[in-house]
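hey so i finally got around to running both of the ones u sent me last week. sorry it took forever, my laptop kept dying halfway thru and i had to restart like 3 times lol. anyway pasting them below in the order u listed, first the sequence line then the structure token line for each. didnt double check formatting much so if smth looks off just lmk and ill redo it

first one:
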Amino acid sequence: MHSALLNYFKFNNARTLTTGEPSQLAIHQFDHITALVDPTRQFDNQVIIHDACDNEEVVEALVLYQNSFYPEVRIAPSAQALKLGSFLSNSDFHYMYDIDWLVLLASDYQAGEQTSIRVERWQSAQVDDFRALLKTSGVQCADDIWQQKRVMYCTEQFRCFVAYIEDQPVAWATSFIDDSHTAILANAFTQPLARNKGCHTALLHARIQDAIALGCTTILSDVMPESTSAENCKKVGFVSQQVDMVWVK
């Protein structure tokens, strides 16, 4: 699971529409921590604490960010301890939210009933239309950055799906196909007037079926615990792998 998510992180680091600057991503591996550092991308700085460790190891990781943005600190369940929380609080970090990491084995997929919502996978010829759809969700992107990054969207690896209601595109979502026969589902968005009509579920089924048809045996996603997205995912067969705490500064 970790290697596929790391590959997806690196891909997102390259495809981000927030900057056209070359990536300076560096990945540092400690005994119990992975530190992701990129001074060119604010949201790509993360300290991932996989297991219980001494505060000295956390300090060693945090030092890497002296010339970068403050990192997000993600803490796996086995690393969640009062001592670590106190240390982070004393270092001016505060708890922000939880992430529920979900996994679905292809053999456990529960197909849904047919609905009136049509889902299409948009391919390279529709990539500029996909940019226009992204803008409806508030994504901002300068023309020069889009020209640089557009080749990474609507591809065989980064697959973009669009849901329609009455022939109008109203929702979108993506899947990333990793070489390890793993698919990662992410980036689901439904326009406000189309919410609570089944678009998210329709996009889930379309991406899962597509991934299985490609030979993926494992499908991953992440959601906010107890959210509508979490409920929809678990209805189709996803189960919770672990719930991480996220701290920020």
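and the second one:
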Amino acid sequence: MGRVDALGGSGGRAVSTAAVKVARGPGAAAAVAAVSFLAGSVPFSQIAARRFAGADLRRVGSGTVSGTALYDVAGFWPLAAAGILEVAKGAVGPALARRAALRATRCWPGGRARRGHLGALAACAAIAGHDWTPWLGGAGGRGLSPAMGATLVLAPEGTAVLVAGMAVGRLVRQSGVATLLASLALPVVLGVRRGTPGAVLGLCICVPMLVKRVLGNSPLRSAPGAPISRVVSRLVFDRDPAPVS
């Protein structure tokens, strides 16, 4: 019996050591980032628009592959179904990162910090996959839905900030401005609540969202107006300036 217990203990330590090496190694970060990006890249809103309305969201309105555009062409129920999936895909990578780093946290003193950074990487990759999905030639949405999914796993108070921004924007009919303010508030709120790892997570979420707002799905140079007005209009209002007649 003692020999069996000894072997079991040795096996357990070996598994724990292997888990720590995996969680600490660059291979873990690469794998988590790849899974996160691939999950985030699935364009559920576009799929729903094709299935229920025969529409290409890249040709609707501003060309953003988003829930708003899906609602315009297909109505509420396709939006509800696709919206749940859009949020869920943002949670896949962060959940994987959390699970991988949690094992290391139990037997490695630096595991807690690693867990936060790995989650931030996963969130950033999921949003990047959504914003520049290869399945749509680099087009995509703005990243709000997968950001909600990522924060739901990693920092639920961040989800509350994003949802509040979206709700206020709908209420005052200034979604672009409200979601911009919510995105900018995210690193501050998470930094106050969770310290440096929270601030890093907030930045990893908001930076790709802001970059996508400016770059859009069409070249910046093709928008009307002066270059600086194009950048400001896209960043603040999430749309191109109106053409001058």
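quick thing i noticed on the 2nd:
The chain has one domain: 2-237.
anyway thats it, ttyl
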